[in-house]
Amino acid sequence: MYKISVIIPVYNAESFLDRCLGSILGQTHQNIEVVAVNDGSKDRTSEIAHSYAEKYPLEVKVIDKENGGHGSTLNVGFRAAKGKYVKVVDGDDT
Questions:
Q1: What is the 3-state secondary structure (H, E, C) of the chain?
Q2: What is the distance of C-alpha 90 from the center of its chain?
Q3: Which residues share a beta bridge with 6?
Q4: Beta-sheet strand order (sheet of 4-10)
Q5: Which residues contact 77 (CB under 8 A, 6 or more apart)?
Q6: How many angstroms separate the CA atoms of 92 and 13, rounded?
Q7: What pLDDT, in 10s, does the model give residues 7-32?
Q8: How far, rounded to the nearest angstrom, does the alpha carbon of residue 25 sit from its chain's CA centroid?
Q9: Cβ-contact 48, 20 below 8 angstroms
C-alpha cells in the first residue's frame, strides 16, 4: 500500500502537466502514487500522462475518461487511489 496518493484531475493541461508530474515525482518521499485522471482532454494531455506511466509504472497510473467535469474526475481518482493519505493537486501545480 502506498503512503500517499496524489490525484491530478486534468483537462487540456499539456502546457503544465510535464512540470507538475516532474515536481511530484521529484519529491524526497519515496512511497507516492500518482493518479492522473484525464477528463476527455482534446490536446496532448493524455499522451504526456501516459509517457510518465510508461517511465514510472509503479508510481504513475493514468485514467482516461469522457469529459464529465471536475467533480466526476475527482471521484474517479478517489476510487482508484490506494494510499493511506490522499492529496489533490491541479495539473498546473508544481
A1: CCCEEEEEEECCCCCCHHHHHHHHHCCCCCCEEEEEEEECCCCCHHHHHHHHHHHCCCCEEEEEECCCCHHHHHHHHHHHCCCCEEEECCCCCC
A2: 9
A3: 34, 87
A4: 60-65, 32-39, 4-10, 85-88
A5: 7, 8, 9, 35, 37, 63, 88
A6: 7
A7: 999 999 999 999 999 999 999 988 99
A8: 11
A9: no
CB atoms within 10 A of CB 56: 13
Is a pLDDT exceeding 80 seen at residue 1? no
Closest CA to 39 of 56, 58, 62: 62
Expressed in angstroms, the distance from the first to the final Cα of the chain is: 25
**What mean pLDDT is predicted for residues 73-82?**
98
